[in-house]
Amino acid sequence: METPAAAQFRQRVLANWTDPQTVAAWRRWHSRITRQQQLVSDALLAAAHVSADDRVLDLASGSGEPALQIARAVGPTGSVVATDLSNDMLGVARDHAREQGASNVEFVVCDAEALPFEDATFDAVTSRMGAMFFVDLHRSLQEVRRVLRPDGRAAFSAWGPQRESSFFMAVVAPFAARCDPPEPPRGAPHAFRFAEPNTFQHALIAAGFHDAAEERRTIEMPWFGPPEEWWEAFYELAAPPYFDELPEEQRLAATREAIENLQQLYRDGAVRTQAAVVIASARA
Question: Terminal CA-to-CA distance of the chain, rounded, Å?
């Protein structure tokens, strides 16, 4: 039976990804985020051994990536099922699929904890920056293993330590210097759930996977636009609530410092940030 805390976490995750402002922000910035996280998507597809003719399940697809990249990789004889908790987010993904003429993608609203697919359906399962928010991680990973064909590959990306990422610290540090950022409640899904070494690998092993591996990389994540634009996108997409809880004078000062930090990273038309990323993979 689900605990009250888990039920609360579940509602919080759902509320965040169905919020109209969140959906609008991902629609607005989709193309820039796709380009910014291209190297993460490439690493994910490589870890999942995605190839032509594969049938692939992408979890927490959001506004459509990497599901649409996978659709191109598997070709017209392969197929992709893109899933998300939020029908509105998948609506954005559907629009991008139409724009790209991707006819080999199906969209399904579902929770990773209860995948509506038969056993041994997919050659590969992927999720880019989604598994951190699975409320019942163990159950979700068991579901992933269930729907994979024998020896099928699962691959996930997640954020590594925040302090090792200029992607985060350039904008977070000025705010954190003015308050004590709150720790997530124990057991809560959050962005840095897998920041500690081997946590994802151990979770995959506990769920019954074979050949589980976890690789930590520092990946370039350039924002191809001015610093002020990257700040605006970060604020709309990922700013933690405590940013807005600072007194106005401190909040405005922190914002100015964040933009100044980004300006120092701006070269050749892009804000040149890096991020610590975890790439985890395993075999069913």
Answer: 27
